[in-house]
Amino acid sequence: MTRPRKIDQLTLPLLRRILGVAEEAQPHHLLEAAAAVRGTVPQLVLTVARRTGAELGPGSTGLLARAAARAEDYRDLVGEVRRTVPGARVVKGSSLARHYPGDLLRPVGDVDLLVAGAPDIWRAAAAIVRARPVQDVAVVLHGPDRLPFVTLRWPPADPWLDRPMKAEIFATPLMGNAAAVGVRSLPAGLPSVLTDLLVLSEERFQRPFNVKDFADVLALADSELPSVPDVVAAAAECRLAPELAELLGATAEHCDIGDLGPVARVVAAAAGAELGRRAVWSRPPIDRSLPGPVWRWLAAGVPVPSVPLRIHDVPAEQTPARTEVFGDHVILRTPVGDFLATVHETVSADDYEGAIRHLAAAAG
After folding, report:
1. For residue 97, what pLDDT band results from cuts at 50, 70 and 90?
2. 226 Cβ contact list (under 8 Å, min separation 6)
3. Of 36, 63, 138, 156, which one is least surrounded by beta carbons within 10 A?
4. Residue 341 belongs to what domain range?
5. Domain boundary residue among 139, 171, 203?
């Protein structure tokens, strides 16, 4: 006998309860509530409606068609990136989507690519610049190892209705909270389903959990999971026990989470220990021996954003990424463009123009 799937609990009545929409309310009220949570949640509502037999109009059908095309375009892009960086691995949205049944579309807002290190980050970014009409590149440096986190954006098929396409490339999906939980690497050899669960838990450092996260938990609950001790040990090692406990607990308030139920109960103890560690944590002292505030901030675990100086239309793939201190800032010269990493809220016109002149002089 086939075991009932936990994802089958995802129905319109459940979505209405979670989103606080009365049963008698019109469908558009449900979509409005979904949109107030996150831009892709209406797509989840519509795919559940279609799956459960509701009749959709042309606008709803078109929204789902665009969402499916967006996900397909990201899959194509990943294939193109892997021709340059064979080890590139999809995590978060696109990876979670594979746990869903075929008749249930998981909305995907962007594509997240995990690679081995900084050189592969720049190679993957260059591959995307070659493959798509990239208009915006953002770089944030993280941690003592100065790892770049690169975000690229380009126009969607319908810019009047959809957000820009976006790819994020990094050497670890565990960025932490820039305080007691810093940048961490995933333990080696984790099963993919456990990686998905941990990376989903990591999202709590960026935003509250929402109904789409609960749907992800139900999809993961239908997958073959490691043992409870293995899941809890991995969460503790990644400093994610409180976030995993919150995610599973919040989902369990609305749904049966199956084999993840025992995990939710056991991980609570590990969560307490991690919260205790965070409570007594203090930032390491500033290392004054480092040349300039950018390197000092990174050594102390504070992320450092950057200002784009110029973006290359054609990647300079033969040029390795390099850095140089420039006053209080650091110039990042990369295959996809040049950036001014800074700890200041604003960069003065003099500093910006000076960096541009410095790059021009170096090129000439």
Report:
1. very high
2. 191, 193, 194, 234
3. 36
4. 293-363
5. 171
Residue 231 tokens read as: 């899941």
Q: Give the whole-angstrom CA distance, residue 19 versus residue 312.
A: 44
Angstrom distance (rounded) from CA 168 to CA 2: 38
Residue 218 is assigned to a structural domain of this protein? no
The secondary element (H helix, E strand) that includes residue 323 is strand 322-326
Residue 249 lies in a domain: no
Residue 83 lies in a domain: yes
C-alpha torsion angle, residues 244, 250, 254, 258 (rounded to 10): 20
What is the sign of the dihedral through the CA atoms of 164, 37, 223 and 225?
positive
Please report, as a single letter, which amino acid is at residue 102. Answer: G
Q: Which of 320, 326, 333 is nearest to 355 (CA)?
A: 326
pLDDT digits (tens, 9 = 90+) for 149-200: 999 999 999 999 999 999 999 999 999 999 999 999 999 899 999 999 999 9
What are the pLDDT digits (tens) for 38-79? 999 999 999 999 999 999 999 999 999 999 999 999 999 999
From CA 164, how far away is CA 153, in angstroms rounded? Answer: 6
Pairwise CA distance, residues 74 & 213, whole Å: 20
Residue that finishes a domain, picked among 119, 136, 171: 171
pTM of the entire predicted model = 0.94
DSSP class of residue 105 equals: P
Residue 154 and residue 22 share a domain: yes
Domains identified in the chain, total number: 2
Tell me whether strands 165-170 and 111-114 are parallel, antiparallel or unpaired: parallel
Laid out side by side, the sheet with 111-114 consists of 89-91, 111-114, 165-170, 147-154, 136-142, 304-311, 337-341, 329-334, 322-326
Do the domain assignments include residue 104?
yes
